[in-house]
Amino acid sequence: MKLLEFEAKTVLKEYGIPVPRGRVAATPDEVELAAREIGGPVILKAQIPVSGRGKAGGILFADDPAGARKMASGLLGSTIKESLVNTLLVEEALKVDKEYYLSVTIDRVAKSYVVLASVEGGVDIEQVALASPEKVSRYWTDPLSGLGEEQAREILARFDLSDDTAAELASMLTILFSAVMDKDAELVELNPLVRTTSGTFVAVDARMIIDDNALFRHEEFADRSLSRDDETPLELEARKQNLAYVDLPGSTGVIGNGAGLVMATVDLVHHFGGSPANFLDIGGGGSVDTNRRGLLLVLSKPEVKGVVVNIFGGITRCDFVAQAVIEAIEESGTVKPIAVSMMGTNEAEGKRMLDEAGVMNFPNMEEAVQGLLRVQGGR
Length: 379
Prior knowledge:
By secondary structure, this protein is an alpha+beta fold. The chain folds into three domains: about 20-90, ATP-grasp fold, A domain (Dna Ligase, domain 1, 2-Layer Sandwich), CATH 3.30.1490.20; about 95-225, 2-Layer Sandwich (D-amino Acid Aminotransferase, Chain A, domain 1); about 235-375, 3-Layer(aba) Sandwich (Rossmann fold). The protein has helices spanning about 5-15, 30-40, 65-75, 125-130, 150-155, 165-185, 235-240, 260-270, 290-300, 320-330, 345-355, 365-375; strands spanning about 1-5, 20-25, 40-45, 60, 80, 85, 90, 95-105, 110-120, 135-140, 185-195, 200-205, 205-210, 245, 250-255, 280, 305-315, 340-345, 360. Strands 1, 8, 9, 10, 11, 12 and 13 form a seven-stranded antiparallel beta sheet that branches. Helix 2 packs antiparallel against helix 3 (about 65-75) and helix 5 (about 150-155) crosses helix 6.
């Protein structure tokens, strides 16, 4: 779950990370009022769950409340990087002396947490790492060893920092690591963390991504668990039904049991000239109802012209899948072609049921994908 900037800052402020004075606003009137309360120049920041807002026109500067209101009128209701702007964060414009980058995230290759620090903030860290790798420091750690002050100092040792600056940044790194552990976060990022001309350190921008699988431990995010600006309506509906679903831009629906099997099926659709419309993993051991709901969800997408169902029946029973397919066809009244490949537990019974219902089924997934694409598009 991607927190919006103001939500991430609210969390980090509780941990003692300084953030600019600001307020969330949803109308031009509210923006103008917030600007008056702050006083002086302000920044209007679109609250959308994507990075790179500034380059896309989602961050604007205003000298006074009237200017802030005028800019808000154009920004609210606009679409930036395919995200609708419903709210703005109105913040004080700080006088910046130096920008830094700090983050804690997961390195999936190393199977560890990695702490990143750079003296080049405000830009994509990937670009800095490629152009000037000496300006990025990395430190791999894990929840058991944690991150203490000594390790944080070691991360910053390669940079030419004053003692006071090193102490301040080291303290913030340890705080970020604590926030990641406490909140089950996959990422916490300050970019930029700035030192103002008065010498104070402030997190001008912040990102935070919470592990979906840990949300049951965090009641503080309950109001956000079913409200994500970056999801399509079908992805939202799938999450309500506890289905692992991702929308894709094609026309061939893909269903399987197990993420690897589904991804392989998606690849096969591409390989044979088709275009996948989705990724849907119904998981292992799914009931007839779970499989039926999954197929109905995919069939409900207007762009879908046909569906391939690829099942390897270990703890998943092939006869349950066959029953689900038959019920979904009857319930939806669909005329969209469905091709099934299944092998494993109760395979013979499942295929018999599909044959009697007139549903296409094939001995392997390659033939199922090819058979469906021939029916779909005359291939």
